[in-house]
Design brief:
The complex is a heterodimer of chains A (about 100) and B (about 130). With about 100 residues, chain A is α/β, with parallel strands linked by helices. Chain A is built from 3 helices and 5 strands; from the N terminus they run E-E-E-H-E-H-E-H. In chain B, helix 1 crosses helix 3 and helix 2 packs across helix 3. The chains are: A alpha/beta (about 100), B alpha/beta (about 130). Strand 5 of chain A pairs antiparallel with strand 7 of chain B.
C-alpha cells in the first residue's frame, strides 16, 4: 500500500497538515518496503485548484490512500473518481503515529 | 402548500456546532441558526473559491437556488456579527454526499471505496462507525 500524507514540515515528527491542498510537504510512504519520500508542495500558493493539482501529482506515485486534516470539495470528488481512499487525521497526530498504525 | 425543498448535497458536516461571541459584558441571548447547506455554500464559494455555477453543481441545486442559499447565509452571518449573536449550525435540508467512517482505535475518519468494504485503512480493524 502506498499512502500520501500532507505535512507541515519535512521530518518524521511533523504533524499532519490541516488542509490537503495547502500543506508545505507531502510524504509518499510505501508500506511494503517502508520507504519514505518527501516532496515540497509546488501548488501551495495557487489561488485555486491547489488541491486538484497536488492530487494529480500524487496520483503519479500510484497512491491508494491520502491522509490530511481536511480535503476540499474538488479533491474529494477527484479522489473518489480515482479510487483513492481519504483519511482525516486529528490535528495532533504525527506522521509517525499514522505510519505505526498501519498493520504490518 | 409550498413545494418541498430539494435535498442539498454537502460534502462533510462541520465537526463543531457553532460560534460564540467573547469579551461581552452581558451575553446576548439571541441566536442565529445557520443551516448546514448555508455553511457549505460559504465554504464552497468564499473558502474554496469556486464560482456559483460550480458550487451549485457541487450541491446538486440550480444556480439561482445556490445564490439564494448563499445570500441567506451572508445575511445570517451579518446579523450574528452585528447583534453579537451565537451562531449554531442546525436545520436545513442537507444530506451528506459522501459517507465518512471513524475508526475508534486509530482516532481517524476515512472514506470508503466500493471494493474494500468497511475496514480501517490503517489498522484493518472492522470496528468502525459511520459518521452521521
Amino acid at each position: 500500500m502506498i499512502i500520501a500524507l500532507a505535512l507541515s514540515e519535512n521530518h518524521n515528527n511533523s504533524q499532519i497538515d490541516q488542509h490537503f491542498g495547502r500543506c508545505d510537504w507531502y510524504c509518499i510512504y510505501n508500506s511494503e518496503n517502508k520507504e519514505k519520500k518527501f516532496i515540497a508542495n509546488p501548488n501551495r500558493d495557487n489561488d485555486e485548484g491547489a488541491g486538484c493539482n497536488s492530487a494529480e501529482m500524487l496520483l503519479e506515485y500510484n497512491i491508494n490512500v491520502a491522509v490530511a486534516g481536511r480535503f476540499g470539495n474538488k479533491v474529494t470528488v477527484f479522489f473518489r473518481q480515482h479510487n483513492v481512499q481519504m483519511v482525516i487525521a486529528k490535528e495532533d497526530q504525527t506522521i509517525e503515529y499514522i505510519i505505526n498504525r498501519i498493520k504490518k | 402548500m409550498p413545494r418541498t425543498k430539494k435535498n442539498r448535497i454537502i460534502q462533510r458536516a462541520p465537526n463543531f456546532s457553532g460560534f460564540k461571541p467573547f469579551g461581552v459584558q452581558n451575553p446576548s441571548t439571541s441566536e442565529v441558526m445557520l443551516h448546514y447547506e448555508e455553511y457549505e455554500a460559504i465554504k464552497l464559494y468564499d473558502y474554496d473559491k469556486l464560482n456559483q455555477e460550480e458550487a451549485s453543481r457541487m450541491m446538486h441545486v440550480s444556480r439561482p437556488t445556490f445564490t439564494r442559499i448563499y445570500q441567506s447565509a451572508k445575511q445570517k452571518l451579518a446579523k450574528a456579527l452585528v447583534e453579537v449573536a451565537v451562531i449554531s449550525f442546525e436545520g436545513g435540508k442537507a444530506i451528506i454526499g459522501i459517507a465518512w467512517y471513524t475508526c475508534t482505535d486509530c482516532d481517524i475518519a476515512f472514506s470508503i471505496n466500493n471494493d474494500n468494504g468497511t475496514k480501517c485503512p490503517l489498522c484493518g480493524s472492522n470496528d468502525v462507525t459511520e459518521n452521521k
